[in-house]
Amino acid sequence: MIIREIYARTILSKSKVFDYVVNPYVGCQHGCTYCYARFMKRFTGHKEPWGEFVDVKINAPELLQREIEKMPPGRVWVSGVCDPYQPLERKYGLTKRCLEILLRHGWPITVQTKSSLVLRDVNLLKGTDKTEVGLSVTTGDERVRQLFEPGAPSIKQRIKALEELRIAGIRTFAMIGPMLPKAEELAATLRGKVDYVLIDRMNYHYGDWVYRKHNLESAKSNDFFFLKGKELASTFEKAGIECQVLF
Q1: How far apart are the first and last CA of the chain?
Q2: Closest CA to 17 of 162, 134, 115
Q3: What is the pLDDT confidence band of residue 81, given thresholds at 50, 70 and 90?
Q4: Is 3.60.15.30 the CATH number for 114-247?
Q5: Cα(222)–Cα(224) distance, rounded to whole angstroms?
Q6: Range(s) for CATH 3.20.20.70 in the chain?
Q7: Strands, E, within 67-179: which ranges?
Q8: Any bridge partners for residue 54, and if so which?
Q9: Is the pTM of this model over 0.90?
Q10: How far is CA 135 from CA 17, 61, 115, 138, 171, in A?
Q11: Among candidates 149, 213, 156, which has minimal Cα distance to 180?
């Protein structure tokens, strides 16, 4: 793993998903095989394989403090092309410091991660109706998870994090995206732990080799996504959980 400390030029960027996005890191230690953020290598010049490098934007909080004064308020996505709570966050605390600035200014925040490290910041995140936290959980089968997300936390850790966040009074959601095989097992597991669920399909081809290697190619067909997505959404709705299919 190659870790570099860098000075970024900007940190608060416009987003097509929310109003803004903050990415305190370039790259991700989780190294998920399908990750759409691999496209970033075209712009950063990295030659290393995805998951084997991280650039740490050590001036992110200072940049955010300056930039937030110049921008109209809006919802901020933390984060879009990295996991804000990847293991390096334990050392650097950039995500936490950025959250402190956003909350101090009263800006709404959507945190999205795969890591239970987010629980470190529960006391920071609770007590406001402007904050929500989502955990990406793509399958209910740990064996499938290990094929596609070998460097990410276990399903059990993520579900437990959602539960503890919800108990703390924080609005929570699960992002089942990309929907992997055995995602239907999540319906029962997530009950009572999330306010809503988002379901998305595999939209990129970076992880195709995993499907081929493990004879799972039928699980990336249009028929699979439309059928399983519809079935899964129906199951959540019957359980009283708001659900949106994004494809």
Answers
A1: 35
A2: 134
A3: very high
A4: no
A5: 5
A6: 114-247
A7: 76-78, 109-113, 131-136, 171-176
A8: 3
A9: yes
A10: 16, 23, 7, 10, 11
A11: 149
